[in-house]
Amino acid sequence: MLTNEQIFDECVKIYENLNDNNKEAEAKEKLFYLLDKIQDKALYPPILNHLIRQFGLYPYMNQDTSILADRFLLECFKANIGEDEPKVLHREQSRVLKRLLSNESLILSAPTSFGKSFIIDALIAMKKPKNILIIVPTISLLDEARRRLIKKFYNYNITTTTQQTNLENNNIFIFSPERAVEYFSFINKENIKLDFFIVDEFYKISKDYENERFAPLQNAILKYTNISNQRYYICPNIDKIKNENSILCKGMEFECLDFNTVFIHINKCYKDEDFKKEEKILEIVKKDEKTLVYTQSQSNIKKVCEILVENTIIENSNALLENFAKWLSKYYGEHYLNDTLKIGVGIHHGRLHRCLSQLQVRLFEGKDLLKTIVSTSSLIEGVNIPAKNLILWDKKNGTKNINHFTYKNIIGRSGRMFKYFIGEVYLFESPNEDDNQEKILDVEIKSESLSINDEINNEIPDNIQAEVKNNQLEIIKLIGRDKFNLLKKETLLKNDLEVIIKIIQILQSEDFNSEIFTYLFNDEPDKWYILSKIALIREFHCNNINNTSNINNVELVKKLSQNWTKPLPKLIKDMGIDLDDFFKFENHVAFKIASLFSDINTLQKILYPEKEIDISSFVTKLSNAFLPSVVYTLEEFGLPRIISKKLHQCGFIDFENNDLTIEQALNKFKEHTADDIINILKEKNLYDNFEDYILNYFYEGLG
User: Fold this and answer.
1) pTM of the entire structure?
2) Which of 509, 447, 455, 449 shows the shortest CA–CA distance to 478?
C-alpha cells in the first residue's frame, strides 16, 4: 500500500508530464497505473483528485476528499441515469449528452471503455421519451440491455421479442436487426413514432466489416429513420465516415472521441522466441484473475478448455459450480463444459442455449466463482463484463482474419471503469493491426439490404434502385407481374434472390403438388414429404455436422421434432451427434430452415391461392426448434427448457396451450417469487440442486 508521501511524489511526476504537451498520453497512462496501485478510493488525497480532474475523469474522483472547487465541479457533472442517486459523468460523456439533449442526431465513435450506455440511460431518465428503439448486434447484448434498463425504468414496457405486442404509453424496444425488421410492420400498423432510435455497434452496417449481417441492419435503419425524431448511432474507433450523405445517416453529425477511461497494456506474446500458447495460457490463468479468452470457433473453445482441464489441479472445489456441472450432466449429457466448470472455467458461443450463456456470464461476474471464460466473438462483441486479462488465442473470426473493429472490441473487454484501471491484453497471434492507418467506415447502402418484395424508397441511389428492380424482374419472369404485385403486399421475404428463385422453381416444377404441404399438419414427421424437396436447396443443410450415424439433414429435422417430449441426452443420442453439433443444428433449424419455410409459405400462397393452404404454424414450430413458443422465448429471459418442462408437469403453466403468450407467462411468474417456484418443484420431487441459482437469476431479470 502506498503512503500519502509516495502518492504525492507520484502525482508531482505526472503533473510534470502533463505540463509537457508531448507527454499527455504518457501522463494519463501513469495516472491509471497509480490508481491501480492504490485501488481504494477512500485513500485518494486532494492532490490526486485534482490531478484526475485535469484529465476529465471526474467519476474517479473522491468527492469526500476533494477541495471545495473540485467538489463543486463534481456536482455540476452529475446526471440522472435512472438510479436512486445521480451519477458523475466524465467530461466527454457530459459533452455528448449535452448535444443529445439539444436534439442533435449523432454518430459517436469512442473507445469500448467510454461508458456509452451511461449516456443512453441518462437520455431516457432526463428526457423521458415515450418510445425508444435500441438495436444491438447479439442476443447476449440484448438480454444485458433488457436487464439493465428494467431495473431502472420500471414505468416503461420493455419489449425484446417479436411476440410481445402489448404496448403501453412508454415503450423501450430492444431488438437485433432481424427482429427490428420483422417488427416494423406492427409498429407501422400501430402508427408509433420513435422519440429515440439508437444503434449499437453501428460499424456492422458496412459490408466491408460485416459481410453476413450488414443487410438486415441497413434494412432496419432504412425503415425506422423516417419514423424517428432523433437518432444516436454508436461505434468504436472510427476516424472518418465515407458516404456521409448516405440515406442511412442523413442529417446526422459525426463525433469522434479518443477518450479512454482505462489503460490497455498490449503484450505481444507471439514475438517471444520461446513462446508456446499452452504454457502461456496456463501461466496467465494461474494468476487467479478474471480472464477472457477469445477463439475463432467452437472447436477451438473445446481445444483451449481441454488444455486447461488437463493441466489444472483442483485444490478447493466450489459447491455451486459442482452443482451446475452435475445439473448439466443430468439434463444435457456428457460435455467438456461439465469438467471445465469444476476448475472455474466457462464457455460462450452464439449457438449455446441462451440461458446457459447468461448463467455463465453471471457466475463470471461473481467474486469467487468462474475465473475464466473461453469464447468466440459472441461474448466479446458487446457484453459488458469486467475482465483484467484478455487473451487473443486466434487472429481469425471463423475462417477470416479479424477486422479492425472486431480487434478493438476484443481488446476493449480488458479493463473496466471502477474495476480494472489497467487491462492486460495477451496477443497469441499477430492481428496485423496498423494503428497508424486511418479507420474509415463506408456507410453506402447495398442492394442486398432490400428484400425482393420491399418497397423502394425514392431516396435510395439510382444504381441501387436499378439493381433491386433487376432482381424483381427475375421474379416477375417466373411468376408474372400480377402475382408479383400481390407478393409486394405480403410479409417481406427473408432469403436472397438465388434462394427465392430456387424455391419458385421447386414450387412450379411439373411433379410438384401443393397438397404436399397439408402433410406438415400431421404429427408424424415421416409424412413431412416436402422436406426432401426443399433439401435440394443448399441453405437447408447444416454444414460440418459430425454425424456418427450418417443421418441426413431431413431425418435430423424429423428427429428434432421430439425436442419437447424427449429428454435431451436421449434425443442427441438418437440423432447420432454430440451436444456441440446439437446446439449448431438446433440453431440452424430455428433460423435458416425456418426462414426458408417462411418464404416458401409466402410464395406458395401467391402461386396457389385457390388451395388456401397456410403452413405458418409449421414455420412457428421450426423457429422455436419444436419447443412450445413460450418455452423457447423464456430461455432468452434466463429460464432453461428443463425447468419449464418441470413446471408444465406440475401444472403451474400449460406451455402446450397454443394461445399462451409470453406476456401471460411472465405475468404468471411475477405473481410468485423464486422461492415459491422452488417450493413447487420440491413438493413434486422435481427440484435439483443449482435450480435455486437459476430461478433467482431469472427473477432478477423480471424487474
Assistant:
1) 0.93
2) 509
